[in-house]
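note to self — DONT lose this again. spent like an hour looking for the file last time. sequence + predicted structure for the chain T wanted, 242 res
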Amino acid sequence: MSEFDAYTILVAYPAIFIFVFDWTGEGPRWAAKNRSFFPPAEIKARQESRLRPLLLGKYGLLFFALRIIAGPRLFQIVSLGSHSRPWLVLIAAGIAGGLLMLACRRLISLLSARAMSAEKHDYFLRGSLVLWLAVFLVGGFVEELWRVLCILAFQQNGYTAFSANLLTAFCFGIAHVSGIPSRVSPGGVGAEMILGLILGALFIWSDNILVPYLASVIYFISTFLRVRRHFGEMDKRLQVAS
């Protein structure tokens, strides 16, 4: 793939997640009128409820974009079976990577009041369990397919593994804060970049997409359960008190 293809793949993820589906509706109209990224809670809740099921649609569009850019050789470029280490070692690395990401998120929350406050506005707090499991399993695979394709494409064009991982992690951070205004800050993007760097490093070390995918699934499912349990219990106590 050419360097142009590499950059096209790189920007596809944040472009789809920032601009597709989110640019219409009650929330953006209010934001444009009031010049603020923080609409009232009732508007934000309605907007998120409408857009949440479309997350899978975004991942579908991202996969389609990757398939168009990479062509029919997509799964030859990103070989699912390639690895240079025993499977047990790869599985252990994926689990360890997921736990490391959880530790990083917890540390960032403890060091940053804004990061901890952002969890109160997390998408994870609303929506069905089935929907979120589908997002983690299906969407997580498409995310890692995008990451691996980016890293390989840049390396093919003479970039170092470090610079390819850094570029990919930056766009991963931008894509992940889209739609969550409370995370739109240098710290919010930085926190997501750290997670992206870990996932990229797992692939570079293992040469296998399944390692960062396993780490991603462990991280997001665990975070989902923790955020729901913690803030769900807080909501119930507030409802009882009122």
